[in-house]
Amino acid sequence: MPSIDIQVLQGVFSDAEKARIIEKVTEAFGEVAGQTIKGGTSVRVHEVASGSWGYAGQVLTTQDALAMKARG
Questions:
Q1: Of 31, 24, 29, 51, nearest to 41 (Cα)?
Q2: Domain 4-oxalocrotonate tautomerase-like: where (predicted)?
Q3: The pTM is what?
Q4: For the CA atoms of 59, 19, 15, 6, what is the dihedral angle to 10 degrees?
Q5: pLDDT tens, residue by residue, 45-72
Q6: In this structure, are residues 4 and 29 in contact, taking their beta carbons and an 8 Å threshold?
């Protein structure tokens, strides 16, 4: 069945927030794909080490991501 992978910087989201991300993504996918497929959907949150992610040629750190998260 469907497999959804989400990558985030390590230390940005709490376990409770990651659980909520998994729940919401599964629910949204189910709204489109149907409840039968939703029941077989796998969602994984992968944490990438701080400094091992780049965006627009710039290295991102956990502190950068926390600052973005704080801005909303």
A1: 29
A2: 2-62
A3: 0.89
A4: -20
A5: 999 999 999 989 999 999 999 999 999 8
A6: yes
